[in-house]
Amino acid sequence: MTSKIFSTLLLLANSGFLLAQGLNSLAVTPPAEVALKRGVPGTAKIKLKLPPGLHCNTNTPSDEYLIPLKLTFAPANGLESTEITYPKGKDETYSFSKKPLNVYSGEFEVQASLKAGTTASAGPQVFHGKLRYQACNDSMCFAPKTIDVKIPVVVAN
Amino acid sequence: MRAVTLLKTLSAIALAVGLAGCARNPESVQAASTVKSEPTRKAAPDFTLKDADGKMVKLSDYKGKVVLLNFWATWCGPCKIEIPWFKEFETNYKNKGFAVLGVAMDDEGWDAVRPYIQQQAVNYRVLMGTEPVGALYGGVESLPTSFLIDRQGRIAATHIGLVSKSVYVNDLKDLFDAPAAGK
User: Fold this and answer.
1) CB proximity under 8 Å: B 142-181 to A
2) Of A130, A120, A112, which is closest to residue A41 (Cα–Cα)?
3) Burial environment of residue A31 by CB neighbours within 10 A (0 to 12, 13 to 18, 19 or more)
4) Which of A64, A80, A136, B63 lies most in the core, judged by the most C-beta atoms within 10 Å?
5) Helices (H) and strands (E) in chain A, counts
6) Which of A16, A63, A139 comes nearest B23 by C-beta?
7) Helix H or strand E encompassing A124
8) What is the pLDDT of residues B136-152, one digit of tens each?
9) Which fold has domain B2-177?
């Protein structure tokens, strides 16, 4: 009985944590500065973290109706993203799905290859991206969200 | 704002209950009725939404029936577990004065929803949801969110997240057994 009460309290505390974090919050660690030379690609590493109990679909979800995690950048100020590399997800089984779903949970990292073109001005700037994802737990799903990803970039002379 | 806070709290409790195992095998878990006592029930906010045929549908048109109002989306896995149950309820309880109303919350609208409901042969009415209608029902921040509405048009039970089929069956039985409006 004591362990049941403890488990319930733990779950409620965990729910409180999720509420404090936002029920559907994917946390983005501010990426390290990327030094770019014109015409030479550089890589931005974007560390992401979902609260315990939540998962989101990978970039290649298991079902056509599921919403993929997707990072996009619009070219700006001579900067562009040439490739986005998503990590492999894990195949997990949930009570609501007969087949395993390919998902991200906990911490994971997305990488963006960036390039500064000839029109990019030298010096520091911030390259803005958009990350769209849709998270669920074992019994409910949250509306798709799009969050800003800001990558500090320094373009060499 | 109070409604949103209330919904968040209910979501957290539903989350905890879900994590505790209620949703492990949602088809087989046995549960008691969760229907509220009559004096505590509040009126279900009325709305008008379009159905798949483009017809405007008002919730208040269903007064006198028991209504299962289900907010869902095609991208919501747990919602898809419930759809076959709701199809079954629609068939089995139609003669008891009952209707399921599905409110799809897909941003892509009918382009996403129509093929899915055709593929699944959904036999109940599906409406296209809007943010204002979601707001009337506390924001509907998580799906599935379902409301059981009694024959007097009052919310008798709210289910946030996937609950077991028997919860719905028991709740509906309670509502069907209740005396009809004005009797």
Assistant:
1) 142-144, 160-163
2) A112
3) buried
4) A136
5) 1, 13
6) A139
7) strand A123-133
8) 999 999 999 999 999 99
9) Glutaredoxin (3.40.30)
In which band, very low, low, confident or very high, does the pLDDT at A23 lie, cut at 50, 70 and 90?
low
Which sequence spans correspond to the domains of chain A?
A: 23-155
Helix (H, G, I), strand (E, B) or coil at B107: coil
Nearest Cα residue to A46 out of A120, A123, A108: A108
Among candidates B9, B75, B161 on the partner chain, residue whose Cβ is nearest the Cβ of A140: B161
CA A148, A54, A134, B8 torsion-angle sign: negative
Interface A-B: count of C-beta contacts within 8 A: 106
Please check whether residue A133 is in contact with residue A26, taking contact to mean a CB–CB distance below 8 angstroms. yes
The count of C-alpha atoms lying within 13 angstroms of the C-alpha of B137, restricted to the half-sphere facing its C-beta, is: 30
Radius of gyration (C-alpha) of chain B in whole angstroms: 15
> Which residue do the tokens 């599906």 mark?
B126
Q: Which CATH class is domain A23-155?
A: mainly beta
pLDDT of residue A26: 94
Chain A residues with beta carbon closer than 8 angstroms to that of B80: 96
Q: Output DSSP code: residue B124.
A: S
The DSSP annotation for B55-69 comes to -EEEGGGGTTSEEEE
Is the pLDDT assigned to residue B36 strictly greater than 60?
yes
> For chain B, how are helix, strand and coil distributed in percent, rounded to 5?
40, 20, 35
The rounded distance, in Å, linking the Cα atoms of B143 and B82 is: 11
Mutation site, A64, A134, A141, interface B, largest B CB count within 10 A: A141
- State the pLDDT at residue B33: 79
The C-alpha atoms of residue B60 and residue B57 are separated, in whole angstroms, by: 9
Q: Answer yes or no: are the C-beta atoms of B174 and B35 closer than 8 Å.
A: yes
| Residue with tokens 């109706």, as numbered in its chain | A65
Residue B49: φ, ψ to 5°: -135, 160
